[in-house]
Amino acid sequence: MIYITLITFTSWLLTLTVGQNLVLIGGNLRVDNAIVWEKMVKLAGGQDVARIGVVSASDDVTTEGDRVIGTFLRLGVKVTGIPVNESRVNDTAVVNLIMQQTGIFIVEDSEDKPASFWNRFTSLIRPTDSPGEPSMGVVCYETASYKRQNLLETLRPSGVDSPVLRAIQSVLKKGGMVAGNAAIMGKAPVIISGDSISSLLAGTRFFSSPRDQFSFRKEGGLALLNMEYVIDSHLSEKGREVRTIRTLLESNITRGIGVDENTALVVNNPLAMPVGKVVTALGVISGVFYVDVSMVPAVSMTNALYENVIFSFFTVDDSLDFTSGKVVYPSWKKRMFGLEQFKSAVPSDDIFSLVWPSQWRQTALRLMNCNEMNVTSHSPASIVPLVPGVTVVFDRSGAVGFAAHLPDNFSNTYVISFQGMSASVKVLRIL
Ligand SMILES: *[C@@H]1O[C@H](CO)[C@@H](O)[C@H](O)[C@H]1NC(C)=O
Ligand SMILES: *[C@@H]1O[C@H](CO)[C@@H](O)[C@H](O)[C@H]1NC(C)=O
Ligand SMILES: *[C@@H]1O[C@H](CO)[C@@H](O)[C@H](O)[C@H]1NC(C)=O
Ligand SMILES: *[C@@H]1O[C@H](CO)[C@@H](O)[C@H](O)[C@H]1NC(C)=O
Ligand SMILES: *[C@@H]1O[C@H](CO)[C@@H](O)[C@H](O)[C@H]1NC(C)=O
After folding, report:
1. pTM, whole model, 2 decimals?
2. Contact at 8 Å (CB) between 186 and 225?
3. In this predicted model, what pLDDT tens digit does every residue of 378-398 receive, in sequence order?
4. How many domains does the chain have?
5. Which ranges of the sequence are coiled-coil (predicted)?
6. Does a structural domain hold residue 149?
7. Least distant ligand from the CA of 188
């Protein structure tokens, strides 16, 4: 009796003090990023209460699952590996196990089944990227694209919630925490493969042969964020801004979000009125890209000219209301107007670079922090593979920036957030 009362009391306490939270991880979350891991533990009820289930679409716990389990164990939290395959996803015992958790971490590194060999040749969406070895010391690393499809197909076959996914939703509704790669959490289409260049050129009259075909899953993701936003991860580091923009235009959705690596957007109330707060590692300028394509003319795609793309960038402690698009900056950040530190902007000559990370972000932040109002960057043409050049113009005349040195005692990092910059992206003829 006392035992039952205690459990009831604890779960009420959790509901009242913690609330529903979805942790959108921007990929390559380092196992030593204490701020983000401790945040997840706290949102799952704190070290003493938290019971975290690590869900993967596999027969057994995967490499990434092992890392997640190990990291939570080091923080002194109770953690259980919960691999689910197509039969276990309907299993009452698995459903009950999930319901006992106060937190769920969804792992994308699903099993590489022999069956997917056949899928490679039958599916329209081909896993052109090779799995490779996961990078050391990180979770939510990039896996082969068919693994993302396998995870989504297992938990939400043809866009219908499985019993296990419904159990995960109820953990969230009871006031628990659900975390995982940001890119799979929305209900809007989920990007499966391709980079900014291949997405920009797909279906246009500009002849090209990019190596990694652009594709996305129309049925959407796990729908744990109940709002029409296309979401991407590894955003700045892999230059994915245009890939997000193109997915929005293809799927007639106006707003998108991209989370940087080793960064999280912690979303409170994700199923009703979501508000997200940016959480990063110590001393870094990374954050969240926000884009709105409602002003982009309809003819853009065939002409491969995308004008009036309005974008923003949010850094640590900024919070974003997903419904209104309003942002609240912490009081330690100051309005930038008149405080710009540099005379001129610095354009990038490889704005979507896969080699030099975060060119788009760097160029935009520098523009905010100088006396010029626009900057013209390029993406170089190439012969093998055949890819045309691209020009990207940023204009900050409508933008408002907030910036400050981080309020820590060691990093001296100057972080810049802004809202309302406009971009125009134009593909150039090859010959
Ligand atoms: C699912 O995984 C379990 C082990 O966790 C295994 O016994 C079972 O055969 C698997 N089912 C399928 C359909 O692969
Ligand atoms: C799981 O349940 C769904 C309906 O909820 C059903 O369509 C599917 O065939 C079941 N899968 C297995 C492997 O029993
Ligand atoms: C796009 O969405 C808007 C509003 O959501 C709708 O009015 C319009 O018909 C849609 N267009 C297409 C081509 O689906
Ligand atoms: C960029 O700004 C300059 C003035 O600073 C202006 O003369 C020029 O027209 C602008 N270019 C574009 C493409 O808006
Ligand atoms: C910075 O140092 C001061 C004085 O040593 C200390 O009071 C404060 O808590 C420190 N702030 C942080 C964020 O570490």
Report:
1. 0.91
2. yes
3. 999 988 778 899 999 999 999
4. 2
5. none
6. no
7. 3
